[in-house]
Amino acid sequence: MITVIGATILLGIIGRWIYQRLIKVPPPRIICGLANGPPLTSPRVKLNDGRHLAYKEIGVPKEEAQYKIIVCHGYENCKDMDLPIAQEVLEELKVYLLLFDRAGYCESDPNPSRSVKTEAFDIQELADKLEIGTKFYVIGLSMGTYPIWACLKYIPHRLLGASLVVPSVNFWWPSFPSALSQHSFEKLPKSFKRTYKIAYYTPWLINLWMTQKWFPAFERDGLFLASDLTIANRMDKLPGKKNALLQGEHESLHRDIICANGKWEFDPMELTNPFPDNKGSVHMWQGSQDRVVPIELNRFIVQKLPWIQYHELPNYGHLLVHEAPNFELVLRALLVVDD
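Above: the chain sequence. Below: its structure as tokens.
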């Protein structure tokens, strides 16, 4: 009897240690600008909650711009992303692009309370701090599109237009027919399915899951077209990917996965048209050969929301926006600029 009690107590202590050390408590934060963190090299704004967002401005000066656009980078990227647009094109269109590191990425402070909603208000506050105007355009890329959905939900009155480029989806959005969602989900690699399920059902396990060595968290073999791989190899040599994880993976990647694939406060397919007077527009861009994002789910979304203008580029994969002609198409469509 004493042996059983002792073993139970020991198992309890071990279990508590595992929970505290490996599951509940995230790794120590690495904060840019502090003694244990990388140096700051970019301009930043201080938000009302004390956090800082790092940013980068390209194109024409904001004082001269006709169009002001905030760009949200995707997973494992940052404001230094590969954005193939010539200065001459931006000058022709009179475009000011504001790129920023989302919370926890590169040189922006982490946000322990990060959510889909907070991403929208980070964008709004960034615009206000930099005084780019009461209204602006937004573009999101891949996993960086969930902040755009949040903008359409929480700050539509601040928008002049929005583009969702190869947008990631959450398989648990209520408006998806279960059969369609399940069919799309089953086409993903097993590693993706496990990661998405953990993010949705047990997000407190995400750090343990993403750092364990037994199973891959994201197995990408076969997901990218040959053209995607060429682009990815080019991007790997640029600052964007290298700088993205300066503050560690937990505050950037892990929280991103939870926000994108966890439980949302709203269903995007229940949003109303933010531009009923047709003085702005919302666009979705999709590659017909994209294997990362389930194309049938995004097609369903635009059927439910006919006010979204859908553009499907034949023979392109997930990294379509990183080819200069395609990003120019995205800009011209959003700004209704003729060739």
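The longest strand covers residues 52-59.
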